[in-house]
């Protein structure tokens, strides 16, 4: 399906790089590690980076129930959410032709609060499994008290667009003969060696789900 093109999500510059396809938008949201939520409070602009997870056509963020940031996002407050992934430095022969290869999403939505504990558990499990598949089954699950101390906000994805760039630099014809190196330097995120924290001094073997995470990196 495609999300509707609106005045807020319509891509005007380099529109050929834009997409309103839900599968493309969902894939970028799922692969990005965090998003930035922008909103206005008392006529002042705010932009907060935070982790997120998508379930169907809804996006979720969470934190402490006492979080000043989360308490500002009262129900029905409209926000702008952006997420991006940098894939490469695009080095051209002229300064102003340099660019990035990237994938990005911007969406607009109203806030709602997740109240039901079972829904909270489902969202928290999805958060964990998005980052470290298999981790949820090994760890201690949240207690009722911990769930009550956690605020989860959701956003219906109804108004969204994606924009992407890939490929080599686009040098002007006059610059193509300049004796300057041009091309793409790929960027990627990867995991480093695990650093165990064992306060009880009882070292444990690396779990299989972490080994798989590192092997697939």
Automatic annotation (TrEMBL):
Compositionally biased tracts (Basic and acidic residues): 194-217
Give positions of region: Disordered.
189-217
Gene3D superfamilies in the record: Electron Transport, Fmn-binding Protein, Chain A
Q: Which SUPFAM superfamilies match?
A: FMN-binding split barrel (SSF50475)
Query: From what superkingdom does this record's organism come?
Result: Bacteria
Instruction: Give the matching PANTHER family.
Output: 5-NITROIMIDAZOLE ANTIBIOTICS RESISTANCE PROTEIN, NIMA-FAMILY-RELATED PROTEIN-RELATED, FLAVIN-NUCLEOTIDE-BINDING PROTEIN
Protein name in the entry: Pyridoxamine 5'-phosphate oxidase family protein
Species the sequence originates in: Fodinibius salsisoli
């Amino acid at each position: 399906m495609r999300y509707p093109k609106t005045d807020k999500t319509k891509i005007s510059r380099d529109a050929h790089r834009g997409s309103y396809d839900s599968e493309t938008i969902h894939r970028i949201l799922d692969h990005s590690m965090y998003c930035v939520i922008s909103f206005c409070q008392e006529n002042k602009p705010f932009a907060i980076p935070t982790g997120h997870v998508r379930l169907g056509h809804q996006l979720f963020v969470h934190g402490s129930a006492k979080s000043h940031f989360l308490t500002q996002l009262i129900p029905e407050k409209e926000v702008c959410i952006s997420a991006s992934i940098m894939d490469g430095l695009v080095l051209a022969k002229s300064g102003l032709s340099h660019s990035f290869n990237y994938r990005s999403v911007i969406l607009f939505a109203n806030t709602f609060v997740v109240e039901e504990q079972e829904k909270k558990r489902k969202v928290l499990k999805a958060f964990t499994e998005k980052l470290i598949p298999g981790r949820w089954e090994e760890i201690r699950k949240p207690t009722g008290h911990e769930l009550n101390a956690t605020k989860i906000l959701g956003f219906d994805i109804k108004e969204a667009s994606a924009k992407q760039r890939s490929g080599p630099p686009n040098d002007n014809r006059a610059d193509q003969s300049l004796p300057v190196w041009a091309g793409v330097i790929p960027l990627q995120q990867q995991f480093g060696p695990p650093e165990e924290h064992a306060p009880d001094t009882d070292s444990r073997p690396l779990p299989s789900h972490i080994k798989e995470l590192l092997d697939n990196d």
